[in-house]
């Protein structure tokens, strides 16, 4: 298991501290295109308990955040239907970065540059703790999933597809 070390503050951790939301820090060696699977492997966490943060947009190019299990994909068709959009698709990396203020691979739903609606896969809310990006590549934070609802007004959806 990788040894946790303190990482300098990010917009995500600043937001959590300001709101008084407790979190734990977990660092790992970032691997290009390794994603949640690589962080789970290095940290010894259950991949289903790691949440990936995806920046998507609807048919009007309005951005939104989807927080999904690390071992699942998003059914964009089901997501669009559940949120009342005609269609939803992932943003290109440079567009996602512009909306979130984070580099792809280091995107957190907390402390984004632009305020966006947040949708969370309902299954993640059942865990006592989830691990998601803390705003920097190679850096996860552990939080109670209710913090997504409390801090971001995240709405639950059921849009997970098996990989």
UniProtKB/TrEMBL annotation:
What positions does the domain YbaK/aminoacyl-tRNA synthetase-associated occupy? 36-148
Q: What is this protein called?
A: Cys-tRNA(Pro)/Cys-tRNA(Cys) deacylase
Q: Which Pfam families match?
A: tRNA_edit
| Taxonomy, superkingdom | Bacteria
| Keywords in alphabetical order | Lyase, Protein biosynthesis
Record has Protein biosynthesis as a keyword: yes
Q: What class of enzyme is it?
A: lyase
Which family is it part of?
A: Belongs to the prolyl-tRNA editing family. YbaK/EbsC subfamily.
Say if the entry is tagged with keyword Lyase: yes
EC number of the protein: 4.2.-.-
């Amino acid at each position: 298991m990788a040894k946790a070390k303190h990482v300098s503050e990010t917009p995500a951790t600043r937001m959590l501290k300001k709101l008084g939301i407790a979190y734990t820090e977990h660092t790992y060696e970032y691997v290009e295109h390794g994603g949640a699977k690589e962080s789970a492997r290095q940290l010894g966490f259950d991949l289903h308990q790691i949440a990936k943060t995806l920046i998507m947009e609807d048919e009007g190019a309005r951005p939104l955040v989807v927080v999904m299990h690390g071992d699942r994909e998003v059914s964009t068709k089901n997501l669009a239907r559940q949120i009342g959009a005609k269609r939803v698709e992932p943003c290109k990396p440079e567009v996602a970065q512009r909306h979130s203020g984070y580099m792809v691979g280091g995107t957190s739903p907390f402390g984004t540059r632009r305020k966006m609606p947040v949708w969370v896969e309902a299954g993640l809310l059942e865990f006592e703790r989830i691990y998601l990006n803390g705003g920097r590549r190679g850096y996860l934070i552990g939080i109670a999933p209710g913090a997504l609802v409390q801090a971001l007004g995240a709405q639950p959806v059921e849009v997970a597809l098996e990989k």
